[in-house]
Structures are given as structure tokens and as C-alpha cells.
Amino acid sequence: MSARFDRIGSGRLAGNGERVARTVTIASAMFGRGLLWGLAALIVGCGVWMLLPLSKGSSTEPVKSDMATVEPAVPSDVATVVLPIAQASTAAEIDRVRISSQTWRRGGLGSKALVTFTLRNDNDYAVKDLEIVCAFARRDGSHLTNRSRVLADTVNMKSRKTFVGVAVGVINVNADQAKCSLIAARRA
Questions:
Q1: Which among 72, 77, 188 has a CA at the least distance from the CA of 131?
Q2: Closest CA relative to residue 57, chosen from 180, 167, 149, 175
Q3: Judging by DSSP bridges, how do beta strands 112-121 and 159-170 pair with one another?
Q4: What pTM was computed for the model?
Q5: Structural domain boundaries in the chain
Q6: In the CATH hierarchy, which fold is given to the domain comprising 56-187?
Q7: Cβ proximity of 94 and 186 under 8 Å
Q8: Burial (0-12, 13-18, 19+ Cβ within 10 Å), 62
Q9: H or E element at residue 160
Q10: pLDDT digits (tens, 9 = 90+) for 123-148
């Protein structure tokens, strides 16, 4: 009782070899037309994408923004205990350390912010454990999010150091502007 499925429909195709060849030719022609239309759509889409203007923050020039400097948010009960100690240990270190230039771009398929900035240390001592915070905003200037990062690197006394492509975190897709500030540093 074995079913012979290999013979199903073979009689119908056996006499119609020309019909099968014509069907294959029509299918390949339709596939070729679809491929051409897809290629044309891809070319037009890339052309439109290339004509779109660049966002302000993705260029290599420093971003000049009207955004205010970001202050770290500390709960009030913690601020009374920790803030005086933090101010005493870091205020002397960051008063003469500043970000002299900065740019940013998107990375990681557009979801991560990569910041390039130059830190200038005018102190008579080296500083390390630099903490930066970056504020991201929409094109109209409305605030979106803050991201911070601690850089376990040292900037020597009376010198400057450029940090290239520092990943500060995942950002909103609507972010168009960034402003980074140095909020903490320690004496090396």
C-alpha cells in the first residue's frame, strides 16, 4: 500500500513541455522587471537622502547652542551631606579645566551619541576621573535628555587633550543639538 505521489500530474506536464518553458520564461521576465523597479526605487531613495540637509550637530564644526549649562540633580537630603564634601574636593580642580571645543555625531545605527571634545587644563597639576554631562535637545531647542560619562583618563598640567568618539549613551531619535559640560574632576 504505498502511495505513488511521484506520478501525480506527470501526465499533464509530459505533453506540455513547451507550456512549462513558456511559464518559466514569463516568470523570469516578471522577476527581472521587479528587480529593475526595486533598483530604480533604491537609486531614487538614495538620491533624495543625499539631498537632505545635515543636522546641526552632525557636522565637524563646534555646535553653538543657546542651551543652558547642565547642573547635576542631587536629592535635597543627600545634598546636605555629600555636596559640601564634593564641592571641597572638586571645585578647586575644575575651576581651571574647561571644554574648549566639542562636536557630536550619531553612531550605532543612529541610537548612540559619539562626542568629540578637547579638554584644556590650566591648573598647575594634572587632573583625572573627569565627569562630563551632555544635554541633548530637539532642533527647536526644547530639552530631551541628559547623559553623563566618567573618563578615567588624565589631562596633564597646563595642557589640553582631545577625546575622540566618546560614547556617552543612547539618545532620542529627535536629538539634534548637544551641549557638554565638565562637572567633576580629581587631582591626579
A1: 72
A2: 175
A3: antiparallel
A4: 0.51
A5: 5-51, 56-187
A6: Immunoglobulin-like (2.60.40)
A7: no
A8: middle
A9: strand 159-170
A10: 999 999 999 999 999 999 899 999 99
